[in-house]
Amino acid sequence: MKKIVFPIIAVFCGFVGCSEADHFQLQDNGIMGIKGVYQYDDVRISFDVTSPNGESDEQSVVLLTVNDKNLEFEIDMSNESFLMDGYGAVLTDDEKDALKLLAGNIIQYLAQRGGELTVHEYAIVRILEYWAESPGNYAIGRREYGQPNFQNPIRLGISANEGITCIRKGTWVTAKYDDSKGDHSESVLVGSTARPGYECMGRCGAGCGSSLVPSSWCKDCLDHDQCSHKNYSSGGASDSNCGDEYNEAADDWMFGVARGCNGK
Ligand SMILES: [Ca+2]
Ligand SMILES: [Ca+2]
């Protein structure tokens, strides 16, 4: 018998970044997906998260519109593959702030609801945080990871992609990266502060992030943190020194939380 899903429609304010003028609406369709809209100041976001092939607890497709920018994300938990495409969009600081607040609002809603996250809820929260923390002026293009027939463009060498490797706060781990000056191996205390803006070394994302959204703590993220700290780099995947490390950390960011890489 086909399962009948009763959507839960929530319209509320009072969550993070939700002033009187703002608006957050969410329709929770359980295993069928989740959709909604969020207005934060001048930024309007709509999101629609569904299964590519009907009901699925392992695959999800996220369609996101941020003002006039369309972004897509597909994730398959069964083989840890994903595809993201921002069609070259460059998000403004206001838009990134709104994405971060939306992720926090969704997490708060899910915490109230209780129960385990569906793949759709996991997908929207991970990708919102990823795009919210994209570097300034970074054009979000198409990127695939782990897809069948996918030729990994990441160059080998000292900073090779180490898959998704958990690291623990308070331990010393050797960060490996390359830049214009050559190969580097440097011991870094996971969770330490290298300088302002480089707190929580080894956490995937800038600084210590938001306490509302769970973080991945992984080796390739530590490599990228150390590379960009030493090179004062910016620009994400397009950075000449640390772009390869940035790309190598994308899978850690997406699947580290599911793998339990919480830094502990
Ligand atoms: Ca990796
Ligand atoms: Ca590099």
Which regions have little confidence, pLDDT < 50, spanning 5+ residues?
A: 1-7
Shape: globular
User: What is the average per-residue confidence, as pLDDT, rounded to a whole number?
Assistant: 85
Number of strands: 10
- Fraction of residues in helix: 10-25%
Ligands in the model, by name, code or SMILES, are:
calcium ion
Explain what you see:
The chain has 264 residues and is an alpha+beta fold. It has 2 domains: 138 residues, no CATH class; 88 residues, no CATH class. The strands form 2 sheets. The protein has an 8-stranded antiparallel β-sheet, covered by helices on one side. A two-stranded antiparallel ribbon has the order 9-10. The longest helix has 21 residues. The site of one calcium ion has 9 residues, from α5. One calcium ion binds next to α5.
Properties at a glance:
disordered N terminus; single chain; 2 domains; 264 residues; alpha+beta; binds calcium ion; eight-stranded antiparallel β-sheet; 24% helix
Topology overview:
Elements: E1 8-12, E2 23-28, E3 33-40, E4 43-50, E5 59-66, E6 69-76, E7 81-89, H1 93-113, H2 119-132, E8 140-145, E9 172-179, E10 182-189, H3 219-231, H4 243-248, H5 250-259
Quick overview of this protein structure:
The protein is an alpha+beta fold and 264 residues long. Helix content is 24%, strand content 28%. Residues 159, 177-179, 227, 241-242, 244-245 line the site of one calcium ion.
